[in-house]
Amino acid sequence: MRVPGSDVSLTFRNYGKLLYQTDISLCLLESEGELFTLAVKAKGDTYLPLNKFDKNYGQATVAMNSYSPPTQRLRASHTVHVLRGLGLFMSLYGYFEVDFDIWSGRDGNVGIGLIGLQTLEA
């Protein structure tokens, strides 16, 4: 799926259990806020710290990792487009666990990720 208005495409695989729409939506929203803060502090687009991004909200989690640092790395802008694409995809096809690959037309294969249930520690 190509994310509208961007050069980012997502390939979805390994579909799983249904998720709570509210938890997923709020997890995506909180993630965008965190990435906005990162970009403001960096005064523009920047690579992700430690080449990964993880966010939990309620029972939902979203995680992304750079594909092959240091050459194929996720930027904050890639990640924001991914979050938008996940929201669009799930609003159309359903809220369920899924793994995905991240492709940028400018940078190539830049990352992998998942959205799913957070495992709670007892």
Give a short synopsis of this structure:
The chain has two helices and five strands. By secondary structure, the protein is an alpha+beta fold. The chain has one domain (8-117).
Order of helices and strands: EHEEHEE
> pLDDT under 50 segments (min length 5)?
none
Number of strands: 5
Shape: globular
Q: In what range is the share of β-strand residues? A: 25-35%
Biggest sheet: strands, sense, closure? 5 strands, antiparallel
Number of domains: 1
Order of strands across the main sheet: 1-4-5-3-2
Count of helical regions: 2
Helix content: 25-40%
Rg over CA atoms: 14 Å
* Structural class based on helices, strands and sheet pairing: alpha+beta
Give the rounded overall mean pLDDT: 88
N-to-C CA distance = 37 Å
Walk me through what this model shows.
The chain has 122 residues and is α+β, with helices and mostly antiparallel strands. It has one domain. The chain is built from two helices and five strands; from the N terminus they run βαββαββ. The protein has a five-stranded antiparallel β-sheet with strand order 1-4-5-3-2, with helices on one face. A hairpin with a 2-residue loop joins strand 2 and strand 3. Helix 1 runs antiparallel to helix 2. The protein is globular, with a radius of gyration of 14 Å. The chain starts with 7 loop residues before the first strand and ends in a 5-residue tail after the last strand.
